[in-house]
Amino acid sequence: MLNYIEPVFRPPSEWKSLILQVTNGCSHNQCTFCDMYTQPQKKFRPKKLEELEQELQQVAESGARVHRVFLADGDAMTLPFRRLKASVS
User: Fold this and answer.
1) Contact, 18 vs 68, CB < 8 A?
2) Across the strands, what pairs with 72?
3) CA dihedral in degrees (31, 43, 21, 58; nearest 10)?
4) In terms of pTM, does the model score above 0.90?
5) What is the pLDDT along the chain (89 residues), one digit of tens a residue?
């Protein structure tokens, strides 16, 4: 259903949430303690708004009950508020 770029890391507290991958990878990706986003396919980039709209439409059409949405990947909050709002509106 959703077009994830693996691996996707789900925080334990989000086990019931829909994981919406609004970005891929981490924009900083230089932390000495973290190797979560070092794979070649995890180079940082925001997901295209059209892709997100299609994925959300698929979720809506599936009839899945979604109570919470977790914005992934490693650096989803680097996106401007307007972009994030457009992603989930």
Assistant:
1) yes
2) 21
3) -170
4) no
5) 688 999 999 999 999 999 999 999 988 888 899 889 989 999 999 999 899 889 999 999 999 999 999 999 888 888 888 887 776 66
